Amino acid sequence: MNMRVASAPDRCFDVAGTGFTVLDRVYADGSLTDESLGGSCGNVLVCLAMLDRQVAPVLALGEDDEGERLVCEFLQAGAEVSYIRLHADTRSPVLAQQLDTVSGHHDFSFVCPETRVDFPRYRPIGDIELDSASSMLTRCSVFYTDRLSGSILKAMRTAWEGGATVFFEPSDVSDQQLFNEAIGMVSILKYSIDRLGEELSGLHHSGVRIVTHGAAGLKIADGEGTTWCNAFKAPVVLDTCGSGDMVSVGVIDWMLLNKLGREHLTRANLVGGVVAGQQLAAANCAFAGARGLFRSLGAPHVRQILHYSAAAE
Length: 313
Known about the structure:
The chain is of the alpha/beta class. It is built from 10 helices and 14 strands.
């Protein structure tokens, strides 16, 4: 599959994004049961594409079977794949998920549980991907990322200067300088209290902050105060993987549905999206995999959950 020569149509995109996108290999109770697109960035973008949002992933992958598998999943979901570049000298990233279906607990590893050989790691975009996507980035409504690098920061700035809402979901702060440069462009900052709560407790951020507290719920904060949202009780807990991603999907879809630009973002007008995402997260726990709900019941069923949440507001 040659992704180097295609060009995207001249249109506005709902969401452009880059970041952690891998091939997930799911080992349920010790046995390999599934392989599919994963990683927070990959999962959020492909879910939004399945919900009929115009989505453009910007990624650097390997010219290998795994890379083609990831591109095909994006393509089948309806995403624009012409900003994904496959490199002959790169191997696409793979991540093993060990799932205990009794407890719903999961662990992740970059080591193959069968061979004990290291899997290829995630590689951020470079200047080649940035150059090809720059024009598109000026026309997107939302820019999503969960990782930072020099080129990702440039992509973020390009989208921000074009008027996009920047949604940043870091898993760590590995480069303080990059993080400090990025935070001034971020409209929505979402992170886990367990991972980054202490590190970011004194951070000055003028946008909306969504801080997840696991099964308890989450907190939405802005300059005017905070709102606590209790988690929805999952009817069945088979796998909690992807729960946080479902919240992000709900928030971004809500922003697009209500045409909320970055100048209109407050905790009050994002609560509806957070609640919708929490409902998706609870429903998704009943299925194995980060998108088990989509795969088992289909995107129309997911859209019904989102519409119900919107009507409840």
